[in-house]
Specification:
The protein has 353 residues and is α/β, with parallel strands linked by helices. It has a domain of 95 residues. It contains 15 helices and eleven strands. Strands 6-7-8-3-9-10-11 form a seven-stranded mixed beta sheet. A four-stranded antiparallel beta sheet has the order 2-1-4-5, covered by helices on one side. It is globular and about 70 Å long. The two termini are 25 Å apart. The N terminus is likely disordered. The structure holds adenosine-5'-diphosphate (ADP) and magnesium ion. Adenosine-5'-diphosphate (ADP) binds next to strand 1, strand 2 and helix 2.
Length: 353
């Protein structure tokens, strides 16, 4: 079974033809309390037309990673190391002017909270049409028509009237949809959706996910989907990255990770996430304790203080050495491939159902 490692290595992507390639990304914040190590050596690839799902508890570095890709971090208090290659262009130290022209056009983000993205001072229509005018050179009339079209697509009733409203005249759910319209108006090549539908009811949520799929079909957009919802992951994503304490701890195709997860953290996470076809809200398998402080993360495997399997690994490996994550399918855990499989089949799978 140790040959499994070989197969994993063979499946490792070269990264050469990927549209977005993040290599050994580190993001640190200087704060009054010390340095927050929010992202610690993260690498992933994403091809055009594909969707990468990112899951992980709150505070695992999902939003920081993606804000950094878009260059939306505060350069004064943030240190970024590593490479972010978008279509072959290294964005890590790109000038703000270059990032600004890429944002909203080539790459855009749907935020968790619409209020971070919408200005209270301009009408919803103007905020949707402005980036469109800027990047396409469309006339005012054309851009307004485009804004109305986008509001229609995201399911805003009476779009020809609501286009002239200010954000405060919209309900929370409508603001979220307006912000999504704004993110999609230029048909971005890279769309980052950070918990895009959490605040929306199920029907609207399905409508928005369909819209993202349409965008992808038509324009071959690459999508990063950060979500707590396994249903969304299963429905939308091709590949899945599981993050813990600013690192990827497991990666693979969605099918592989959902069907035979390998990392103890993923086991806990899958057991505690909302599931398809389940009316049970209670976590099946809660993870004990809480995520670590990134000011002073645990030694070795950052998950070890919460992990039920350090005894199976034996010795002090989990405390003293950090397991690496292979490229391609794999997980960063000291359990052997046989142990992972055996524990999963005997103890975890029956509980996940
Ligand atoms: P999530 O996975 O929930 O999206 P985040 O990426 O938002 O997590 O945050 C990762 C870590 O970085 C958290 O510990 C958070 O408190 C910290 N963090 C995020 N932004 C800042 C900031 N501007 N200054 C200091 N710490 C930050
Ligand atoms: Mg977040």
């Amino acid at each position: 079974m140790t040959t499994l490692t070989k197969t994993e290595d063979a499946a490792a992507p070269t990264g050469s033809d990927s549209f977005l390639s993040v290599r050994d990304l580190h993001v640190k914040f200087s704060t009054e309390d010390g340095v927050v190590n929010a992202v610690n050596g993260l690498s992933f690839d994403l091809e055009r037309g594909k969707t990468l799902g990112i899951v992980g508890e709150s505070g695992s570095g999902k939003s920081v990673t993606n804000l950094t890709v878009l260059g939306l971090h505060n350069p004064k208090s943030t240190t970024v190391e590593g490479d972010i290659l978008l279509d072959g262009v290294n964005l890590t130290h790109a000038p703000e002017s270059q990032l600004e022209s890429l944002r909203g056009n080539k790459m855009s983000m749907i935020f968790q909270d619409a209020l971070t993205a919408l200005s209270p001072y301009y009408t919803v229509g103007r905020q949707i049409s402005e980036p469109f005018r800027k990047h396409t050179g469309a006339s005012k009339k054309e851009a307004r028509d485009r804004a109305i079209e986008m509001l229609t697509k995201v399911g805003i009733p009476q779009p020809t009237l609501r286009v002239d409203d200010y954000p405060h005249q919209f309900s929370g759910g409508m603001r979220q949809r307006a912000m999504i319209a704004m993110s999609l108006v230029c048909n971005p090549d890279l769309l980052i959706a950070d918990e895009p539908t959490t605040a929306l009811d199920v029907t609207v949520q399905a409508q928005i996910l369909d819209l993202l799929k349409d965008l992808q079909q038509e324009f071959g957009s690459a999508i990063i989907m950060i979500t707590h919802d396994l249903g969304v992951v299963a429905n939308m994503a091709d590949d899945l990255l599981v993050m813990y304490a600013g690192r990827a701890v497991e990666r693979g195709s969605v099918r592989e990770v959902l069907k035979s997860p390998q990392h103890p953290y993923t086991w806990g996470l899958l057991g505690s996430m909302p599931r398809l076809n389940s009316s049970v809200d209670e976590p099946l398998m809660p993870i004990p304790g809480s995520p670590p402080s990134l000011l002073n993360p645990p030694s070795g495997c950052a998950f070890h203080p919460r992990c039920a399997f350090t005894g199976d690994v034996g010795g002090d490996a989990c405390v003293s050495s950090r397991p690496g994550l292979p490229d391609g399918r794999g997980s960063a855990c000291h359990l052997t491939a046989e142990q992972k499989q055996q524990v999963f089949i005997e103890k975890i799978q029956p509980r996940l159902g």
